[in-house]
Each structure stands twice: as C-alpha cells, then as structure tokens.
Amino acid sequence: MKRFLLFSLALAASIVLSAQVYLDPNAPIEQRVEDALNRMTLNEKIAIIHAQSKFSSPGVARLGIPGLWCTDGPHGIRAEVKWDEWDQAGWTNDSCMAFPTLTCLAATWNPEMALLYGRSIGEEALYRGKNVLLGPGVNIYRTPLNGRNFEYMGEDPCLSATMVVPYVQGVQEKGVAACVKHFALNNQEDGRHVMNVTLSDRALYEIYLPAFEAAVKQGKAWSIMGAYNKIWGQYCCHNHRLLVDILRGEWGFDGAVISDWGGVSNTDEAIRNGLDLEFGSWTDGLTEGRSNSYDMYYMAQPYLKKIRKDEVGTKELDEKVRNVLRLIFRTSMNPNRGFGSLCSEAHAQAARQIADEGIVLLKNDAPKKKAQPVLPIAESTKKILVVGENAIKQMTVGGGSSSLKAQYELSPLQGIQERAAKNGAEVQYVRGYVGDIGGEYNGVTTGQDLRDERSAAELIAEAVQAAKQADVVLFIGGLNKADHQDAEGCDRLQYGLPYAQNELISALAAANRNMAVIILSGNAYAMPWLREVPALVQAWFNGSETGHALADVLFGDVNPSGHLPFTIMPALEDFASHQYGAIGYPGVNNEVEYKEDLFVGYRYADLYGQKKPLRYTADGREYVINPPAHKPLFAFGHGLSYTTFQLGKATRSGNTIRVAVKNTGSRAGKQVVQLYIAPDKSGVIRPVKELKAFQKVALEPGEEKELFFTLTDEMLRYFDAEKHAWVVDPSSYKVLLGTAADNTQIVK
Ligand code: BGC
Prior knowledge:
Elements: H1 2-18, H2 29-39, H3 42-47, E1 56-57, E2 68-72, H4 102-108, H5 111-127, E3 132-134, H6 157-172, E4 177-183, E5 196-198, H7 201-208, H8 210-217, E6 223-226, E7 230-231, E8 234-235, H9 240-250, E9 256-258, H10 267-272, H11 301-308, H12 315-330, H13 345-358, E10 360-364, E11 383-387, H14 412-422, E12 426-430, E13 440-441, E14 444-445, H15 456-469, E15 472-478, H16 501-511, E16 515-520, E17 535-538, H17 546-554, E18 591-593, H18 602-605, E19 614-618, E20 621-625, E21 645-647, E22 651-653, E23 656-663, E24 669-679, E25 690-699, E26 704-710, E27 717-720, E28 725-728, E29 733-740, E30 743-747
Parallel strand pairs: 2-3, 3-4, 4-6, 5-7, 5-18, 6-9, 11-12, 11-15, 15-16, 16-17
Antiparallel strand pairs: 1-2, 7-8, 10-17, 13-14, 19-20, 21-23, 22-23, 23-26, 24-25, 24-29, 27-28, 29-30
Helix pairs in contact: 2-12, 4-13, 5-6, 5-13, 6-8, 13-17, 14-17, 15-16
This protein binds beta-D-glucopyranose.
C-alpha cells in the first residue's frame, strides 16, 4: 500500500512536472515558481541571479523563460544603452516622454497624480519592452546639498510614504515591476560608495524607512534596490539587518532585492544577506569591460565555486532563484501584460497635469501699493522680458542615471512665447547669466549651443537695460543637471544659487519691480534677494511639458496648487544636518553620523525659539539638538494660490476630525489641508509636531466642502528602540490642521 502511494505521488509529480505548470499563466505564481525551480540546473540558477548586460539579466533559454530588462527611472524610460556600456546605443526609436521629477510629484500632495504618473511611465516601460523600472526613489531630504534630492519625494516620511504607494501600484498594474530605491540611507552623493551611516533606530524607523515600508506593505512593490552606502558597517546591498531582518522579516517582502549598479562587493555577504540580483559589478563602464566579466560577478563563478567546494549549500541560492522567478512571472511572463504606449498624447497630458499641480507659488505680492499681484500675468501685458539660462536650457539630459532622451522638451521660453502670442504680447529674451553649457550625457545630446563669451557684468547690464523697457520681467534660473548642481554622483558645493544669479536678480528687481523669479531646481537654496522680489515660483524640473506647465501657471490658466515637500531655511547652517561639522555632513573618514536624529526638516525648524538645546540619549549615544537660529523662509507644506481659501473651525468628535474649506476668491483652485499631531509633554523625546495625513481638495469659486480625517493609533505611535516595537504614546496630544507647517490651528 505504502509503495503504491509513493508510486502514485511520484507519478503525479512527474505529470505535474511534464505539464510545465510554470508555463501555465493561470496557475498560481508560487506553483509556477516551484515548478520552474525544480527544472533548473545549478548553472542555470547561478545565471539568473546576476546580469548578462548593463541592464538585463538572463532567463532560462532552455525552458523558454525570458530574462529581465531593467531601465532607469524614475522620470522616464532611459535611452537604450550598448550591451556592455553606459553609452547610448544610438537607436532612433527609443526616445520617451519625460515626466516631472519626483520632487515635483511630491509637491502636488496628490496621490491621484502619483497613480497617474505610475500608470503613464509603466505604459512607456511596457512599450519599450522593460520589466523593471528602476524607481521611484524615496530617500529622505536630509541636506539641501544632496545632488539627488530631485529624484526623491522630500523631507517627510508621511508625505513620501503616501505618494510612493500609488506610483508603485500604477507601474505594477501594467505588469512592470517598480524597483524602489535606494534602500536605505543614501541621503548624499558625496562618498556614496564608501560612507558608513550611523543613526539611532528611532530615526531609522520614524524618518528614513516609512516610505520604503509603505512601498512594500501597501504598494506591494515587486523589487527594491539596495543603496551604495554602508549602514552599521555593512554595505546596504548585502546588509543582513536591512534585507533579512527588516525587509523580509518585519515587512514580509516577497519581491526581489536588486543591487545598485556596482553596489556588491562581497560574495559571502551577498549569498547570506538577502541579495537576489546583482547588477553593474566589474563592468561599470567607467573601468574596464572584459569579455567574461559577467562570470566574474560576486554572485556568478565565485558563488558557483563555493557551492562546488561545499563551502555553502544551495538553500540560499534556491531562495534567490525563487525571488527572481517570481519577478519574472509577475512581469515578463505576466499573462495580463499589455503592450503599452510611448510618447502618447495621454502621456503628454499626464506630464503636464502633474507639473501643473506641482509648481509652487511661494510668494506673490503686488509690485507697488494698490496694484495687483505680479502673477498671474495680466492679459493687458504687452512686453514680457524673459531672462535666464534656465528659460532655454534642456534639462532632461544630464543629472546622472535619470538622464533621458526625451522625444521633445518644451522650454520655459517656448511655453511662454506660445501662450503670450494668444494675448498678442511680445516676448523678449536675454541670457542674463551663463551657467552650464554642456548638453551631453552618455552620448545623448541636446544639440544646443549655449556658448556665450560675455562677462557676468556685460550680461547683467544687458538684462537690466531690457528690464527697464518691459511691462513684466520673468527671471528663470536656479540649478541645472551639471555636476555639483542637481546631479547624481556629487553633491552641491554651496547652498546659494551659482553663476552670479543673486546679483542678477537684485539688479533686475531694482530695474523693474514688476518681476517674478522662477526657479528650476530640485533643492532649496539661499534667497538673499527675497525681500526685493515681489513674486517667486518654485518650478522644479518638469520634463517634456516644462514650458506648457509653467506658462499655464504664469498666465493663470492653471491656478497653482503645489506645496513644498521640504523646508527652505535661510542658510545652510539652519539645516539640522549641518549643525555638527563634517561628521554630520559630509562625513569624516567615511563615517557620517546623523546627529540631528529625528529632527530633520520641519521637525528641526519647529525648535526655533526654544531657549535650551534638547539633550537626550538614544541607542547609547548622546544627542544635543541646538535650536535653529532662524525661522524658515518658506515652511514645509507652504504653497499659495491665485484664489483665497478659508479653513473653517475644525471640530473633533471621537476619532473624527471635521473641517470645512471654502474657496473665498473668484477662481477655481485646490487647497491642501494638512493634519499634524503635536504630543503634549511626552515621556519620550518627540518632535513638536508630525504630519500624519493630508487631503487635496478642488473648489469652485464660493464653493465649500467638508473634509473628514480619522485619527488612528498609528498616528500616535513612536518607535521604542529598547522594545524594538512601535508604541502608542500614552501622553495627551493636540491635533493641528492647516495649510503649511507654519500655518496651523489647534483642533478643539
Ligand atoms: C544609480 C541608480 C540607477 C543605476 C542604473 C546607479 O548609479 O544609483 O539609481 O538606477 O545606476 O543606472
């Protein structure tokens, strides 16, 4: 009887095996994974856990399992590169729609925009035959010098966690995996390959991990990218605590961990500590390319040798293969995968809509008493002067791995010219300053010749002369994607705007009070001229539709509704990470300590005015937080509109908060209502207040809507490092509602 049973089981198993369950699109994924795994040889298993080219990893040709094709990310689909090099391949059918950068997306404070973004970029990835999109990025904005902040979603864990989820869902709805990056603590570019980060567990869990956690637990991200840097002395791409304990153990991640390109450096750690797919080792395109380079990957021949010598078993390997197969069945062998579309009208509209909602009106005064505010530009305006390199410079090329070959990029000047023509207005352009004249990245060129040999004094004189003749002056400057600006691989060298822009702005403001400063950047910057200029717009890097979106806002076709995803402090010294000298940033001997602990962004700005430093111990380290010397120039969450809103008196009944918002002006507009929790005298160190929820609401002129917020235990908790658990703070607390971190009311 027993024999018969065994025989039947073996027969059933062989039927199942020969039935090739893995090819059956309707079979549950886990069955497909096990079936495919059981058919694979050791060599095939080793092959699928590392790259075969710059951006692809092989499948199992013998079994008809296709490989994976990855692409950057996160703002559009990167141009095809050569098999083994970073250089573009020179195809003519691989240009894409460039979507706004992720700081702009975060500035919309609108999860619907994140969903639209994810779906749109997912469709582009599909059309281009990609299975894994290397993005979105959710590293927290710790210092305004970080060259990659433009690829991330700002300083606040609640905002970035809320925005990342629909982005991931939108991409994956299309059968393309999002690869959330860079896990974790890649908060600066300087020394990113060697830096070891030290921080308290509370800061880790409360500030730096929530967006990743939300992407995994709520967004169900199918892949995640390890960061280049180290934490607790171990590289993030094979960091046991991060990948095994937290990601898989605490969050239940069932996707694949992909290394950052060239982020792996140790075979034993890579085997044991949760890495699944290795990319970019040896052939980083910057050093030498070798014919057998992919065999030399840490998880290639070196791994195989260890197995053959019995130094390691195959348990870890099978786990990695399962994770990679699962990724393949979710993406390249996903039966519901469509064909996608590239550069469609719908994608252009999506890019424009996201940029429209992300542009932030920071300041909008009247140029003189009794006059209208500078913006929107009055229809009667006849002579518009546009000044500044960023009005013409193509920004989608450059900045590092997020550089794109956009099918088109409408510059701010083109957008303004197109729109001004409808009003019969004349647009004059003068350069004003010369910044970066480069226009090439990995063989993709803008084709622009931005050379101009004139001195700064000559350029300023020309601009001032023109400003005197104009009805309105639009200065368009900021940062760009050159090294040490908003770019990967190196941080900014200064907090101030480069290229003598400060002098130029002041000179223009003195020549013509009817002026607006429009800044394209992914970072905050010093504004020594702030009082001199009546209007200021934060316009990010907005991709293909840059010019249209900016003109939409400047001319009032769209009422601005973006709010800052980070705090703008007057000086670098006013940021918490810059309070502690080199050890706080950029690090000493490859060590950087997050000595400001929880007090990042507005959590630090909120200490302004406190007489004494905060002193406490966490994880055995002493923390001293000196309050900032200045208030923010613009608070986190700040953003103006061309209409006015009134937030009614908020009331609380049980766990429900209710507030009415009314549009009291004459234009339709959108307001962002933000809910913060402010603990009273807590027994533990807590920030003054923390964002816990927000809603964006659209209102016609005169319209009023009621918003409801539900208070949950999760909003009241903090991370107790000793217990290694989230704990609901038993102390009393206030609920604050408002429209910016510095503009809130207490809910009674
Ligand atoms: C970047 C990643 C990127 C990868 C592939 C790395 O240098 O840090 O964000 O996805 O390159 O281009």
